[in-house]
Amino acid sequence: MPLARSLSVTSLTGLEDWEDEVDLENVVLFEVAWEVANKVGGIYTVIQTKAKITSDEWGENYFLIGPYMEQNVRTQVELIDPPNPAMRRTIESMNSKGCKVYFGRWLIEGGPYVVLLDITATAWSLDRWKTELWDSCTIGVPWYDREANDAVLFGFLTAWFLGEFTAQCEEKPFIIGHFHEWLSGVGLFLCRIRKLPVATIFTTHATLLGRYLCAGSVDFYNNLQTFNVDKEAGDRQIYHRYCMERAAIHCTHVFTTVSQITAVEAEHLLKRKPDLVTPNGLNVKKFSAMHEFQNLHAQSKARIQEFVRGHFYGHLDFNLDKTLFFFIAGRYEFSNKGADIFLEALARLNYLLRVNGSESTVVAFFIMPARTNNFNVETLKGQAVRKQLWDTANAVKEKFGKKLYESLLVGNLPDMNKMLDKEDFTMMKRAIFATQRHSFPPICTHNMLDDSTDPILNTIRRIGLFNSSADRVKVIFHPEFLSSTSPLLPVDYEEFVRGCHLGVFPSYYEPWGYTPAECTVMGIPSISTNLSGFGCFMEEHIADPSAYGIYILDRRFRSLDDSCTQLTSFLYSFCQQSRRQRIIQRNRTERLSDLLDWKYLGRVCTRRVGWARAQGFRYPRPASVPPSPSISRHSSPHHSETEEDDERYDEDEEAEKDRQNIKPPATMGPVPDWRKQPKKPSSEASTSSNASTPTLPSSPSDLSSPGSSIIEERN
């Protein structure tokens, strides 16, 4: 089934400025989400990374609304008095009626104002509000679903707050409410039921039913049109949640989603086609290292190599200089995140490397939080043995250096037989004996609570990747988030990503995909799929994604076995690259950062996009020698190692060619006269777009969204 094109803000040309602009001083933007100052998943990253660009645009008229979580507020929020008189009166009024509303600044870049609603303080109203929800919307929420009950409390408090704020304003402002995901949806449709003067935007980052269906191993994308959505939601006991989500989507003035693939999903499962596709971005400045990112890669790789030396002690029979680090990271959704196909591809890659006598070794990391009770003792022992060897080597080195210095000081060449005594040899032999190991290096770094039923461990047992000496592919399963304070692998996630060579994310269900996006802005090649929002976005804007280190796996139109074969070819192709080719590819990957910067993706407001039609621009293929071996479809013939030094490659010259190819947006200016004239009906106008123009309320005619279509030429 082909992807239907919604009106998208992913086009890279400029949008015309409009002559009649609403004064932003009289427009107030409230962004509502459960993950404001409350990290649960990817929406936290969305809001946090775009806070600066939104604050810069809206200034004092931008407020975030979220739940009050005391443990998060202590470390992330500075509580202050509201500077806005209407806001101060609103909070005082609600607090006097038994609510607990807090106001402060979120301590992130941009320092946006936050309004935090304590749902526990009004839990006594839950039954009354659930009754009102049933009477007005016929949505019943069961008592045992705590998350849905929290959504009801949060939604009613949000609607109460927006209504109170409207009443407290002396001069009625234009109010925009931007709601994220179903957990905030109750507040949206209550605003419509109560007829509050609020222009509403709803952004879905993933559909509830879609996530549940994909987790159930169904042929999701080939059956989108045939699902009985009410029955499927009921069978999974999420019908009340599905009703909340669907009600919010059908009540909102503007409905947006984060990718074309999710737009198709929403149209069939939620029965409304998104008005806009607003892709997620990142704060690229946070990751920017200019020309230093190659050095940062080397430094972070050295940290990972130290961990690998300890983890594989006694079996360190491979060359770390010829070892590649692959990784997959995210929620532990075995099939949705593609861990199943990745493991199968690793088994096939292991066979290819062995039969072809490759000198390369691959260490594949699985960074997926799971239920554990502690670190694996054998894993901790490995790091202790490595440290002991390091200390022994340093002690011998100091003694050797001192004797060498004294010998040279008196003008004699050192007698090598006297440089090390028996005590030194004894100490070194004891250190060597300590590295002996009679078992394979562990797969998992922790003790799993459900070891016998864990899908990753069971798959590893089936395919036989046990980290033996004969295996060219090693596997390490790290079932918790990375932290620089960990006694095992003391690196944070950003540093770990920089130190790896390739991120592998063969997801079956991924509405956007922040993990490959983070790889891109840090100059690390990645594998994504055409079922992820990121993969579709890159395919739309890059003529040859693999030449830029963005490999797009086809999981939509190929069978599972064919997709696994394609993934294996990507991995094997990457293993065949020389070090120089990988450096060139990382340079190209990092050059795509601007595509994912909120500075551009967050600039254009929904009010402009609602009427604009922009033509997209695709990054061309690089002009210089492609970095991939001959197995890649888009690459030139493989060059031998002896020819590499003669290959002509000038990074500055290639960057200049890219700057010439990537056209800057048209300069913003007044609306042309021809655009001011009313359009006459024509066949061309009727076929110009499949999207319908969003219907907005008459008063707050300007809406804001997280998307844009502006990409500027790099400086």
The helix content is 40-55%
The count of strands amounts to: 17
Q: What overall geometry do the principal axes of the alpha carbons give?
A: globular
Percent range for β-strand residues: 5-15%
What structural class do helix, strand and pairing data support? alpha/beta
Which stretches are low in confidence, meaning pLDDT under 50 for 5 or more residues running? 1-20, 604-617, 625-647, 660-715
Architecture of the largest domain, CATH level 2? 3-Layer(aba) Sandwich
Biggest sheet, spatial arrangement of strands:
3-4-5-2-1-6-7-8-9
Radius of gyration: 29 Å
The CATH class name of the largest domain reads Alpha Beta
End-to-end Cα distance, whole Å, is 41 Å
Give the tally of structural domains. 3
Summarize the main sheet: 9 strands, mixed
Tally the helices. Answer: 27
What would the average pLDDT be, to the nearest integer?
A: 82
Stated plainly, the CATH topology of the largest domain is called: Rossmann fold
Walk me through the structure.
This protein is an alpha/beta fold and 715 residues long. The chain has three domains: 27-282, Rossmann fold; 285-376 and 442-594, Rossmann fold (3-Layer(aba) Sandwich), CATH 3.40.50; 391-439, no CATH class. The protein is 42% helix and 12% strand. The chain is built from 27 helices and 17 strands. Helix 10 (260-269) links the parallel strand 8 (254-257) and strand 9 (276-277). Helix 12 (293-311) packs across helix 18 (493-499). The chain starts with 26 loop residues before the first strand and ends in a 29-residue tail after the last helix. This is Glycogen [starch] synthase. Residues 642-655 have a biased composition (Acidic residues). It catalyses: [(1->4)-alpha-D-glucosyl](n) + UDP-alpha-D-glucose = [(1->4)-alpha-D-glucosyl](n+1) + UDP + H(+). Residues 683-709 have a biased composition (Low complexity). Pathway: Glycan biosynthesis; glycogen biosynthesis.
